[in-house]
Amino acid sequence: MRTTAPSPELLADHTGKPLPVVPKPLSYEQARLGMAFHEAGHAVLAVAYGMRVGVSEVIAWTDEQGLWNVTGHTTSQARTIHPWRFAAQSAAGAIAEVQYLLAYGLWTPQIAASCEAPHDREYAIDVLAQYGYRLGRDHTPWGGKSWSTVQGMARRKIGHLWREIRTVAHAMDEHTMLTGADITALTGLVPSFERGAA
Questions:
Q1: CA–CA separation, 35 and 173 (whole Å)
Q2: Is the dihedral of CA 156, 22, 179, 78 positive or negative?
Q3: Per-residue pLDDT at 198
Q4: Strand, helix or coil at 41?
Q5: Regarding beta strands 145-146 and 68-77, do their DSSP bridges make them parallel or antiparallel, or are they unpaired?
Q6: Is 53 within 8 Å of 183 (Cβ atoms)?
Q7: No. of helices (H) and no. of strands (E), the chain
Q8: What is the rounded average pLDDT for all residues in the chain?
Q9: φ, ψ for residue 51, nearest 5 deg
Q10: How far apart are CA 53 and CA 182, in angstroms?
């Protein structure tokens, strides 16, 4: 665990606004593993959908009062991924984290609600808008999809890839940071750009 906070850009959303601090009634180890599942959800779906993952990591540090904090970060590049798949991998982090709570007997409504990641949703909305796709927060816009529909897409994919997500999450918890190559080696998933897809 670091003794200093990470750089401000790792604690901000894509617009530069600071991410909210959300307390979770979990031990440090439980929260750290939960964040590893969150980032593994993003990373594994990204690879499965053909995105190039740079790194995926858990970031933990203590503040001036000696309290621990946990966040995560995954970098990826989307070349030819369909925008709805991009949105689904954006939704996958929070869904994988809630699935971790269920699988490990830690789920409560309060803890599950603390896993929400509105910054992931807002990022997906903004990226899709650049390509003319309409993603609604709490409704289905004409010609588009709702965030709940995208969450359903992510939930189904996570169900198929749960073993891979669990493997990556535990490796990330142990090693803190994994590269896209590490994730490919751990899961056997080969991104489409490495399979020779256009």
A1: 9
A2: positive
A3: 35
A4: helix
A5: unpaired
A6: yes
A7: 7, 5
A8: 91
A9: -90, 155
A10: 10
Query: CA-CA distance, 150 to 136, in Å (whole number)?
Result: 10
Banded pLDDT at 87 (limits 50, 70, 90): very high
* Tokens read off for 33: 């593993």
Structure-model confidence comparison of residues 81 and 187, the more confident one: 187
**Rounded distance between C-alpha atoms, residue 16 and residue 13, angstroms:** 5
pTM metric for this prediction: 0.93
- Bridge partners (DSSP) of residue 58 are 72
pLDDT value for 186: 97
Upper half-sphere CA count for residue 81 (Cβ side, 13 Å): 25
Cα distance between residue 193 and residue 69, in whole Å: 36
Q: Say how far apart CA 41 and CA 38 lie, in whole Å.
A: 5
Q: In the beta sheet, which residues pair with residue 61?
A: 2, 69
Q: Which two tokens stand for residue 27?
A: 């031990």
